[in-house]
Design a protein that fits this description.
The protein has helices at about 20-25, 30-40, and strands at about 1-5, 10-15, 15-20. It is of the alpha+beta class. A 3-stranded antiparallel beta sheet has the order 1-2-3. A hairpin with a 7-residue loop joins strand 1 and strand 2. The longest helix has 12 residues, at about 30-40. One of its GO terms (cellular component) is cytosol. This is Migration and invasion enhancer 1.
């Protein structure tokens, strides 16, 4: 589940487990890391929190 909540946050939960929070990393996750977490969950393996992120995009 991908959800947005106030304060310009972006969070990703898988099966109720928070696996990424923009408020904690100040950026957005890499797609490969998100796909890896989804695959691990699908395979019944433990999902680790995503801690790497890219800087948020800036529109000038």
């Amino acid at each position: 589940m991908v959800s947005t909540v106030p304060q310009r946050s972006f969070e990703i939960e898988i099966n109720g487990q928070l696996v990424f929070s923009k408020l904690e990393t100040s950026g957005f996750p890499y797609e490969d890391d998100v796909m890896e977490a989804i695959q691990k969950s699908h395979d019944g393996k433990p999902v680790e929190k995503i801690t790497k992120s890219r800087p948020p995009c800036v529109i000038l």
